[in-house]
Structures are given as structure tokens and as C-alpha cells.
Amino acid sequence: MAARLFLLLSLGVLLDLHSTHGAVSWGIGECPNGAKPGDSWYIEGQCGKCDCREGSYSCYSCGAYAIDFDVNMCYHYRDSTKQYPECCNPIVRCRGDVGFNETLFQQFGGVTN
Predict the structure, then answer these.
(1) What are the φ/ψ torsions at residue 18 (nearest 5 degrees)?
(2) pTM of the full predicted structure?
(3) Does the keyword Signal apply (predicted)?
């Protein structure tokens, strides 16, 4: 278990360094929920996708991003209506931008004066 965790963390760091969508987990043995080798599925309620292979499966989800923006004017979010990997892309909206929403600005940590 410790070796698996180390590999997961190492792989996640490597993927993040290359600016790709970057959290990966996997399992050995049968695929969950009756999936067969060659099947792929999106993770319900999350931004992620899994692939089934012979004797194992892999699941991918979003990594971490560092986004530089003015928290007094902007907020960021991800579009949960899109499927992986498009749902990972951060969206930044600032006052004056088309689509700026004051309620979302308050909800996602905007600082007001």
C-alpha cells in the first residue's frame, strides 16, 4: 500500500510538472462495476475518466493549477457540465468580462472593498 501511494504521488507530481491534467490512480484485478477490457467510463459526480485493461484499470482526474489573477476583481471556477478533460480547465472571470457573475464572485472567494 505504501509503495502504491508513493507511485501515485510521484506520478501526480510528474504529470503536474508537465502542465497536463494530472491526477492518476489505478487498480490491479477486475475492473469495477463489471467493466471489461477496452471499456472507458466517466466518473459520476467528478471530473474524471477511467479505462479498463486486462487485469487492471486506470482513472484520471484534474491536477492542481496555480492561477495568477486579481482576487479583488476576479474569480475562477471549472465547468462541471463538461466531460474530462475539458472540465479540468480553470475559467477566470473578472469584472467587466462577458459572463461575469457577482454571485459567483462572492461564492468563489472574491474580496470586496
Answers:
(1) -90, 10
(2) 0.66
(3) yes
